[in-house]
Every structure is written in C-alpha cells, then in structure tokens.
Amino acid sequence: MTNQSIIATCKQTRFHLHDKASKEVDVKGLTIAVSSISNEDNVTKSKSKGKSKAKADARELITDAHLRLKEGVCYGLIGRNGTGKSTLLRAMADKLVPGIPHATRIAILQQTDTATQSSLDTPDSDTDASDRKGKPVLEYVLSSDDHKNEVAQKMDLLSRSFESDDPLQPVRAIRAVRHRDTEKDLFLAQKMAHLKSGARGLQARKELKSAESKLENSLELLNQTKETIDAEIIQEDTKAAMEALQDLQSQFEAMRVTDTEQQARQILAGLGFQEAMLNKPFLKLSGGWRMRCMLARVIWLEKYLQQLRESSQTTILMVSHDRDFVNAVCEEVIILREQKLAYSKGNLSAYEKDFEEQKLYWGRMKEAQERQIAHMEATVRDNIKIGKKTNDDNKLRMAKSRQKKIDDRMGVQVSATGGRFKLNRDLVGYHLTARAEIEVPTDERGATMALPDATELRFPGPLVSLEGVVYRYDLRGSPVLNGVELVLHMGDRVGLMGLNGCGKSTLVRLLAGNTLPTQGKISTHSRMKLGYYAQHSIEELQERGWLDPGLTALGLLSEDVNGSLNEGELRGLLAPLGLQGRVVSDVPIHRLSGGQLVRLSLARVVWNSPHLLILDEVTTHLDFYTVTAISSALSRFNGAILVVSHDRFLIRSVVEGKRDSEQGVDEEFEGVDNEPTEVSGRRRVVYVLKAGKLNVQENGAEQFEQSLARKVGKMLPVAG
C-alpha cells in the first residue's frame, strides 16, 4: 500500500531549535515536500536509503519560505486548490516543522466547503473525518478541539475501567494511557535526535534510546497477562488510575465543556434540531439535515473566533474557501502562491484591494520604462549607424554607454524602503551587476470562464410559472411547500436561500420537472430548454469515473450529446470553461480535481444553450478564485438564472449584481451598474424559503445574513 509522506526542512534545523513552548512562530527557509512511499519501503529499506528515495520522489509544494505567526493573531491561509495549504497545516500539527518547538500548542482549524469532509478536521486528530462523521449530531458539532477530545477519551477510558467487575481493567486502562503518552515522547525524541548535532546531538540520541526502551517496557506491561501481575502492582496501578482520572476530570471542568455544549445545543435548536435528534448519528441524517449541522458549526465557529480574538492571546491559522467567513474573522492573510508565503495586513478584501493597487502601480512603472527603453534602443541604433558611417568614435562610445545603461540600470527604480534607487547603496556586492527587473503581480484567479448564450425564443412569454404549488412527501403530513407562487422570464436573476431541509431542493426538482406537485399548477414555455446543475452532480461524476476508470471528459460529453457535436465542437464548449488540451482527452474523470469536475458538470448543463439555468450549490468544491470566475460568467449569461446557494458572495454578485470593493469579480463582470441596454431593468430578487413559503428579501442576501446573525448572537454567551 502507498501513502504520502511529508518532508519538512528549514534553516533552523540544527542550531535554532528550542524545547520550550513559544507564543510565536518564526521559521525561515521553510521547504515542504510530499513523496509517495509504500509501506514495504518503510519496513525493508534502511534509513539512509529511505531518505534518498523520498528526496528523489518528493514534489516540493513550498520552497525556502518564511513562516511567521504572531501571538494572538487570527490568520487566514489562502491560495488555489492544490498549492499545499492543507499539507502545511498537517506538517505543523504533526510537529514535522523543525523550527517550531514541540511544546508549542497551535490551534489549527481547517474548514472545507465540501459535504464529504468534516468542516473542522484538524490534521493531528486521532479520529479521522469518517470516524468524526459517525458521531452523534451533538458530538459532531463539538468535535473541533482535539486536546479537549483527548482528555475526554482518556477520562472515558479510565472511568469505564472502574465500572467493570474485572479488577484488572483500571490497570490495563492506566497502562494504555501511559503507552499513548510514551509513543508521543518517542516521536519527540526521534525528531530531536534527527535535528541536533554535536554534543547536543549525542545527548539527544541517548534520550532516543531511553525513549525506545521505555516504549518497549510500556508495550510489555500493556500485554502482560493477569497471572504475571503482582497484587502489589495491581494496587499501585489502580491507585494511579484513580489519581489520573481525578486530574483529567479537573482539566475537563477547567475547559468549561458544559458551557460549550450548551452553546451547541442552543444553536442546533435554533436551526430546527429536536432534542431527540442530537443523539442521532450524523451519517444517518438526510442531506438537508447534514447541511444544517455543518452550518451550525460554521456559524458558531465564526462568532466564537471573533470572541476568542477579542478575549485571548490564542494564535489561529485556518483555511477556508468562504470569502465572507475569512473577511469576518481574520486579521491578517497569508498567501501561498508560487511555493512562497506572503503576508498582508487586514482581511481578504483588504489584501485584494492592496494587490490591485500594487498591480496598477508596477504596471504603470513597467509601461513607462518600456517606452523609455524603446526610445533609448532607437537612439543606440542611430548612433551606431552614424558612428560607423562617419567613423565618429564619440557616437560609438555614446551608443555603448547607453547600451550599458539599458543592460544594467533599467529595472526597479525604487529601493526596498520605497525611496529612490541609488547604485552605491542599493546595488552592492560582487554578485549584483544589474537592477532587478520590474515584475507586475499576476492574478491568482486563473482561467476565466464563459457560458454559451441562450438560443432565441420564437415567441415571448414566461419560461416557468408556478401557481399555488403545494408539495407533501406524505399525503397525511405537513406540506414542505405551501402555496408557492413564482414566475421566471428570460434574463431574470433569482436567488433562493434558507436552511437546508426547508424544501429548496424540492422546489428545484419541481422546476426541473423531476417531481410533480401535490397541488397547484406548473407551466413551462413550449420552446424552453433547461439546464439543471444538481446539488450532488460532482459526487455522481466521481462515482461514474470510478466505475469506468478510462472515461474522459470528452468521452462523457460525447455520450451526453449523442453525436450532436463533433470532437472539435466539444472542445470548443469545454475550452471557455477552463478545460482544454490533454485534460479533456487523456486524463480520466476520476483523476480530475473538484474544480475541474464542476467545470465539466457545467459543460453537461449548458451544451444545448439553455434558456433557464438552475444551479443548486454550484460553488461546493471550489476555491474562491474559481467562484469569482463562475460569478462573472453567470453575470454575462443572457438567459434566466435561479441560484440555490449558501454562498453569500455568489448570491450578492450574480443575483443582486453588486460589484464593490468586497467582491473580487473580474473586469468583464456585468452588474447592475453596467448591464447591457437590452436587459436593463431585469428582475433581480432574493427569496428565503421558510415554512413552505417564499419570502422576498428586500435587502437581498444581507437581510438573511442579519437575521441569522441575530439568532446566533442570542445563542452565544457574552464575552468577558
């Protein structure tokens, strides 16, 4: 079996390591790589060979970077999918980064936007995402603090041992607890022995041998049979187990777990969870109720971190693809791009604003310099021509001097401090012979996206009309939808928000014609073509890919269109969506990234140029750079759009057409301020589905956010 191994190195590897806990992290020259090493290699290869193999196969994600975390600051780590954000978190949490003292505790909270992962999986947790999701609802919401969880696990193990009729159970329990601690001590000793050299290295290797010996003894005690344990030892270990349990209980009380649990109960109750549902396993919840549970974690976390930031000196580093979440919580942003770490004061919006200003500044400077160079090169050519023709040495010397200036002195015109560049101060050292070239920052958003326009309708009229629609799962039960009225015309922009489980997906299936109403009438335009992106489109694609390992994007689309388009036309459809070249013809679907699968799903939806697009949670699996690309593409679509989403940014940009400093859409975005004349005055409306009714949000997504924030605010305790 093959798994990935993380290799982390830094400049402090041997000479700047401190064993004491530190409230700040300052690691220079950080390099992180991943390598695929089989378990057989780990067992059979020697340490030296294992290292050389790992280095040979390793793929560097971060190279010679500076990791700097200040005390009490909440950082948002951003970057495109696949750049190494999660690997960095795992390396830190697993104490693999040499420059971070092992005793330092770092709160690393990782939020993903996929329903297939835990929203708060911390890399050093003993329980993986699948185990976490097997927990009851209440435990799932509370499962973000691994230190607290470890204390609870130890306490539970010891407590249950005293409930047993077997007098040896407390002995086995305390030995299991000690063995786990011994394993951690061995890991630390191995790390120290690897990092230290000289006299300190000799001492570290002695401590490693001692730790290995202790682990062997611990394992022997753990496997010791009842007959070989002395009665006196049983009494001593039983007493130790009782004392350890009392100590853990004191720690548990100090963590105020009861208050945290009460907060979680209040939030879940506010989201519609009955008391009986709190002990139901998370995995047995329906899709809608799972999303409510995950929403509870996110909302609670957002408010909790804001309070934590104000009331403590805890340093937090987190990854989130929710733009509003990062803006609300983070004080500084760390940007991982081109294998380096860059830092920006303020939240994500502040970083994007500063980035655009820097891009404009350096762009103008480069343009001015290019004009100057072009003029100087023309002068050089003229002087050389005249000098050779007239044998004028002055002209030739002037041409040579100007050419040297072009080669050595045409670059950055400002010093590192922002002042004017001076040769004798800013260009010193034998290795520096010319100024650095002006580099204009490049956007991280990647390829833009474009959707084909809807075909023209032969006669006017509403695309879809719902009149008094009622829907019940059970004819005797309460209606999920109760008297819904909705009309959609060409060009309309409609957003549908609300807690999952309230009936949004049911309404979408009715609009798509996949379900019939219990009562009421649904009418559609006779010429309308519909494009429906279902909530679980990506999961279905992944399953299809694993069932047919050789299936590619081109192959799948060929089946979908049933010969209506040739390969060139299919490539022409995929390319504007950001899928082209070998990716669509040679890479199997099961190897595509989440973002690529979303693009492929959109291609399957829009290939026949639909008049109405229904998008149910289209931004799941995407980083916010891709979300902005989709938002811009949707803004330019000439048909009607109905968006079902928890993504507040998507609703504000696509449905409300808002473009301001808080939104990072591109230059081609068409909002309310620059709509084409033929669609000016298009209908834009945000609905919240509640108690089976569509409620218009006069202030759009902001109104829904505020109502949700007020509810959560009442659930959280007042800081202090």
From TrEMBL:
Write the record's keywords in alphabetical order, separated by commas.
ATP-binding, Coiled coil, Hydrolase, Nucleotide-binding, Repeat
Q: Which molecular-function annotations from GO does this UniProt entry contain? A: ATP binding; ATP hydrolysis activity
Q: Which residues form the ABC transporter domain?
A: 464-688
What stretch or stretches form a coiled coil here? 205-251
PROSITE patterns hit by this protein: ABC_TRANSPORTER_1, ABC_TRANSPORTER_2
Looking up SMART domains in the UniProt record yields:
AAA (SM00382)
Q: Which InterPro entries match?
A: AAA+_ATPase, ABC_tran_Xtn, ABC_transporter-like_ATP-bd, ABC_transporter-like_CS, ABCF, P-loop_NTPase
Q: Localized where?
A: Membrane
Regarding the membrane, this protein is recorded as: Multi-pass membrane protein
Pfam families for the chain? ABC_tran, ABC_tran_Xtn
Keyword Transmembrane helix attached? no
Q: Where is this region: Disordered?
A: 114-134
Q: Name one GO cellular component term.
A: membrane
In its UniProt entry, what is this protein called? Answer: P-loop containing nucleoside triphosphate hydrolase protein
